Amino acid sequence: MTEKVEYWVKIPFGPIHPGLEEPEKFILTLDGERIVDVDVKLGYNLRGIQWIALRRNYIQIMYLAERMCGICSFSHNHTYTRAVEEAGNIEVPERAEYIRVIIGELERIHSHLLNLGVLAHNIGYDTLLHLTWLAREKVMDTLEAVSGNRVNYSMVTIGGVRRDIDEKKRRVIEEMIKYYKEAFPQIEEAFLHDPTIEARFRDTAVISKRVALEQGAVGPTGRGSGIRDDARWSEGLGVYPDLGIKPVMPQDVTGEKPRGDVFDRMAVRIGELWQSLELIEHALDAMPDGPIKTFPKDNVLYAKLRLMVDGEGIGRYEAPRGELVHYVRGKKGSDKPLRWKPREPTFPNLFSVAKGVIGDQMADFVVAVASIDPCLSCTDRVAVVQDGKKKILTEKDLLKASIKKTREINPEIKGDPSPLGVGCVR
Amino acid sequence: MIETALKALFILLYATFVGFMFMGIIRIVTARIHRRVGPPIYQPILDTIKLLSKKSNITHGLIYDFGILYAVGATILAVMFIPLGSIGVLRAYGDLILITFLLEIPMLGIMFAAMSSGNPYAGIGAQRALLTLLAIQVPLGFAIVALAEFYGTFSTYEIVMAQQTMGWSIFHFPLLLAAIAYDLVLQAMFGKEPFDIMIAPGEISLGPMVEFGGKHMGLLQIQHAIALFAETLFFANIFLGGGVVTAFSSSILNTIAGLAVLLVKQVAVLLIATFMGAIFPRFTIDQAAKFYWKWPTIIAALGAVLASL
C-alpha cells in the first residue's frame, strides 16, 4: 500500500472550473482514473450576508435574503418570512398561502429543469441541455408575467404576499401547465429511458442510506437515497397538506428500489416536476377569495414588527435543493433581528456526495457534484476560532489579510492597496 | 518540380480552407439540432486568426513547442498521401497502413506537448487519449485488413481506381461491415461524442489542450482543420468511391467536378459524425474501451474474414 501511494496524484478541482457553476474547490486524490479521496474546500463565495443583515431591519432583510441565491430566491425569502411570522405570531391569510404555494412550485420547476440541463451538459449531452433549458424558458416567462421578474420575484412579504394572482395571470399559468403537459413527457423519456444516460448515471456516486443519514442529506439527495422526508410533508407546511403533498421517492418514478445513485436523484427531480405541476393546478382551483396580506401597508408592517416580534422563530421550507431552515431572534422594540441565521441544504449534501464519490472515476466527479444541485452562494460562511475564542472578521480585517497574503506571494508588487474613496462608512 | 510544388501548395490551402468550413458546418449543424442559431460558418477562421495574432508568453520547453509542429507536420504529410480526385503529390506511395498511421500520430504530438506542460488536467487528458488510441487500434486494424484482403492491394489509389469498375466499397457486404467499424472509429478520431472523454470540455477543460494558448492553440486549430479534411477524405476515398470524374473532355473541368463529388461525400461523412455526436452523451474511458473492443471489433473482424473468403 505504501509503495502505491507514490503514484497517487492530487489535483485541484476548482475554485474556477467549467464543470462547476459556482466557485468551490475540491482536492481530488486520484489513482489513475479512480478517486481515492475528496477534500472539500469552501469559502470562495462568501459575501457576508449575515453580517450585512445585522444592519438591516426586518423588511429590508426580506430582499437581502432573496439575493442570496438566484435560483432559490423565493425559498430564502419565504423561509425567512415564515421565521419572522413565527416569532411575531403573525397570521397569514389563506389566499396568500395558496399564492406562496404557486410561486414556490413554479420556482421548483425552474430550478429542477436547470439542474437536469446541467447534468446532461456534464456528460456531454448538449442536445438534452438545450431541450430542457428551452422548456425552462416557459416557466421563467410565466414567473415574469406573474411577479414582474424572472429571478428575484419579491412576491412574499411578512404576513402575506405582495401581489395577487388575478384572472389574467391565472390564464398565463394555465397556459404554462398545458405547455408542460406536452414538454415533460419528452424530457422524461430522454432522461429515464435512454440506455446511454443510464450507463453514465446508474451506480455513480452512490450515497447509501446510512451515509445520507449520518451526513444529514436532505431534499432530492436524501430522497434518492431512500430517506422519506420532505419538509412540506413532514412539517405540514401551510396549505400543502390540503393539496395532498407526498414525498416523491425514486421508486415512484423508476419502479425500482432506491439505490442512492445519480440516476435516482435525477428521477426524484423528474417526479417532482410532475408533482409541482399538479400542486399548481390544485392550488389554482382551491384558491379562496380574500385578502392577500395581513398588513396592507409596509409602514404599518414596520411599526407592527417592532412591537410584535419578540423571541425566536424558525422557518422551514423544502427548497428545490432540500430542507431550508431560517432562524430569527428578535427583541421587542427593535426593528432589527438580533440574530438571523439561514441553514442551507447544500452543506450536508456536499459532504455526503464527497463521501459517495470515493471509488468512482474522475469522469463521474462533475456529474456527482451536479447531481446534488450545489448552491454555494448560500452555503459559504466564515467564523474564526482562535485560542478557543470566537472572532468575527470584519471587511477591514479581510482586506488586511488579503493584502498580507498578496505581499507574501509577490513581495515586489507595486501599487497602493488601500481602498479608493471613502467607501461605506462603518 | 514546380508543378508538384504548386500542387502541394494547392492541396494544403484547399485542405485548410475546407477543413475550417467543416468546423463551421459542425458548429452550425449542432446548433440547429439544439434549436440555436449558431455562429457564422467562417467563425473558426476568425478564431484562428485571433489566436495566431496573440503573443505567447509562456512556453514549457522544447517538447512543448515541438509537439505542436510534429502534429501539424504529420497531418500535412497525411493529406499529401491521400488521393484528392485527380490531384496527388505522393498518392502513388499512399499505402493504407501508412496513411492510417499518419492520421493517428498527430495525437501523439499533442500528447508530447500536453505532457510536457505539467498541467494535471493535460496529463489526465493525455492518458485518456492514449487509452482511446489503444482502443480504436483493434477495429481499425481489422477494417484495413478487410480492405486489403478484398482488393488485394494496400495502395489507396489502386483501391479508388478499383472502385470505379467494381462499384463503391460499401456496396460489398464484407466492406460494408468494415465501413461501419471504421465510421465508429472515426467518431473517436474526430473527438466527438460519445468518445470525446479525452477532451471532455465540462470536466477536464479540454484535456490535452488546456495549457495551450495563443499561437500554439492557433496552430492546433489549423491542425484540427486539416485533420478533419484528411480523415473525411480518406473515408470518402476508400469506402465511398473517391472522386474520379471522366465525363468532361477538359481535364480541368474533370478535376473540379472530382473535387465537388469528393466534397459532397466528405460532408456526408461529417454529417453522420455530427448527428451521432448530437444524440449521445459522453462515455467514460472504460465504457469506450469496452465498446471498441466489442462491437466494432466483432463487425470489422467479421468483415475481414468474409473479405478473405
What is the rounded Rg of chain B?
19 Å
- Report the principal-axis shape of chain A: globular
Query: Helical content of chain A, roughly?
Result: 40-55%
What's the average pLDDT of chain A? 83
Q: Largest beta sheet of chain B, briefly?
A: none
Fourth-level CATH superfamily of the domain at 58-341 and 363-371 in chain A: Cytochrome-c3 Hydrogenase, chain B
Radius of gyration of chain A (CA) equals 23 Å
Number of strands of chain B: 0
Which runs of chain B of at least 5 residues are low in confidence (pLDDT < 50)?
A: none
Strand content of chain A: 5-15%
Q: Which band does the percent of strand residues of chain B land in?
A: under 5%
Mean pLDDT of chain B: 85
User: Strands of the largest sheet of chain A, in order across it?
Assistant: 1-2-3
CATH class of the domain at 58-341 and 363-371 in chain A, named Mainly Alpha
Number of strands of chain A: 10
Apparent shape of chain B: globular
Order of helices and strands of chain A: EEEHHHHHEEHHHHHHHHEEEHHEEH
Structural class of chain A comes to: alpha+beta
**How much helical structure, as a percent, in the residues of chain B?**
over 70%
Oligomer: heterodimer
Most extensive protein-chain contact, per-chain counts: A-B, 32 and 31 residues
Description:
The complex is a heterodimer of chains A (426) and B (309). By secondary structure, chain A is α+β, with helices and mostly antiparallel strands. Chain A has a domain at 58-341 and 363-371: Cytochrome-c3 Hydrogenase, chain B, CATH 1.10.645. Chain A has helices at 49-53, 58-66, 73-88, 94-122, 126-147, 167-192, 195-201, 209-215, 219-224, 231-234, 250-254, 262-286, 298-308, 346-356, 363-371, 395-409; strands at residues 9-13, 25-31, 34-41, 156-157, 160-161, 311-319, 322-330, 337-343, 384-386, 389-391. Chain A has a three-stranded antiparallel β-sheet with strand order 1-2-3. A three-stranded antiparallel β-sheet of chain A has the order 6-7-8. Chain A has a two-stranded antiparallel ribbon with strand order 4-5. In chain A, strand 4 and strand 5 (160-161) form a beta hairpin. The longest helix of chain A has 29 residues, at 94-122. Chain A is globular. The termini of chain A are far apart. Residues 421-426 of chain A have low confidence and may be disordered. Chain B is mostly helical. Chain B has one domain (2-308). Chain B has helices at residues 2-33, 43-52, 62-81, 96-117, 120-151, 156-166, 173-190, 201-204, 214-239, 251-278, 285-308. Chain B starts with a helix and ends with a helix. Classes of the chains: A alpha+beta (426), B mainly alpha (309). At the A-B interface, strand 1, helix 4, helix 5, helix 7 and helix 15 of A face helix 5, helix 8 and helix 11 of B.
